[in-house]
Amino acid sequence: MTNSYSQVNVSEFIQKSKIATPDNNKLFFVDFWATWCGPCITAKEHLKVLQSQFPNDFYVVSLSSENPLIVEKFLQQKPNDLAVAIDYNKETFKKFKVKVLPEGVLFNANGKVLWQGGAPDLKAATVANFLRQQTTTSSLNSFFNVIEVTEELSTDYVPAKPIEIKSIKTSSKELHVVDNDKYLKLSGSLKSIVGYLARIYKNQIVLADGLDTNYEIYLKKPFNQNENLAYKLVVQMNLGVERTSKTGEGISFMTESAKFWDTNQINWGKNNAKYLVGDSQIKADNVSLKDVAYQLAYVLNMPVIVPDEVTSLTLHDWDFHYKFFQLMKADLEDNYGITAEKKTITYPVYHIQKKAP
After folding, report:
1. Are 308 and 279 spatial neighbours (Cβ–Cβ below 8 Å)?
2. Is 277 helix (H, G, I), strand (E, B) or coil?
């Protein structure tokens, strides 16, 4: 009996399996993974052996939520014979509450979850047992639904002015960024936009009542990367800024013995995502120390203070652990010569308010 039930949405298949057959499968296994996840690579070797043992009625799909170009470049360096797909809008990762990688979910052809756990824990005996219990089959194309994602092109629009500001009505405060050769476009709350432009942690920005509404901001290129774009935007909106200080827990970076990576360690190509922030690892392509500190502040939910000097703005590649502080401290010191300390620090807070008429 063949079933045409579609269970998992993907934006594209990077590659189909070089081992399994796409039709008449009783079981489908979704292997959640990421290119930055070392244990995921080991898990793939286990899954490759498992796939070879059951090539006709069991199909493994490695599912990533990363930029497709990053995944493609990774596969060029480390080829794998399993099917590889990109999650649509990260919905499958969210649906199954995937927080730790590698993780996996085993489905029957009707889309029923039979097993979920660490991908390396799926054993041949478990697969064989479930295969004996199933009668319904489904094809790869029926079980996985490909939904095309239309990306915004750099040639779609060119701002006429250096800064264009439009108020938008949306309930989402999440920041959306489009960064290409023509412009930088930011959509989201004013706090998130100012924080992004200034590379300042959200709790270091205080907005007067009624100001934290949503906007769509275009900044025309080229612009000076060292220019204070956040201040330029605030002035354009006829707002004022007052700086105060606050004391609390945070992380301080010291760079007296800096040995930063150059920009040839990671190459994700032009107009691609600059950051890859996973559950425990941050990777970045051609970004400054100040940029990395901004990303780190958000994942750790505390201020990260870097030296106010030229080296904090030069561009570098990055790859380090952040989930456990001692591992992060060792990574930063060994690879970049950065000394990180978690302690009580005094950090700046910026109060944004309407100017008096």
Report:
1. no
2. strand
| CA nearest neighbour of 65 among 33, 110, 24 | 33
Burial of 196 (0-12, 13-18, 19+ CB in 10 A): buried
CA 105 – CA 107 distance, rounded (Å): 7
Q: What is the total residue count of the chain?
A: 357
> Torsions phi, psi of 8, nearest 5?
-125, 130
217 touches 164 (CB < 8 A): yes
Evaluate if residue 108 carries a pLDDT over 90.
Answer: yes
- The rounded distance, in Å, linking the Cα atoms of 18 and 172 is 41
Could you give the residue ranges of the DSSP H alpha helices within 258-324? 289-300
pLDDT digits (tens, 9 = 90+) for 126-160: 999 999 999 999 999 889 988 876 544 444 578 88
- Cα-Cα-Cα-Cα torsion 185, 33, 48, 320, nearest 10 degrees, comes to 100
Contact (Cβ atoms closer than 8 angstroms) between residue 310 and residue 348: no
pTM (predicted TM-score): 0.60
Q: How far apart are CA 200 and CA 349, in angstroms?
A: 9
171-202 tens-digit pLDDT: 666 777 777 778 888 888 999 999 999 888 88
Annotate 312-347 with DSSP letters as a single string. Answer: GTSEEEEEEE-SSHHHHHHHHHHHH--EEEEEEEEE
Nearest to 32 by CA among 92, 97, 103: 103
Q: Residue 138, SS3?
A: strand
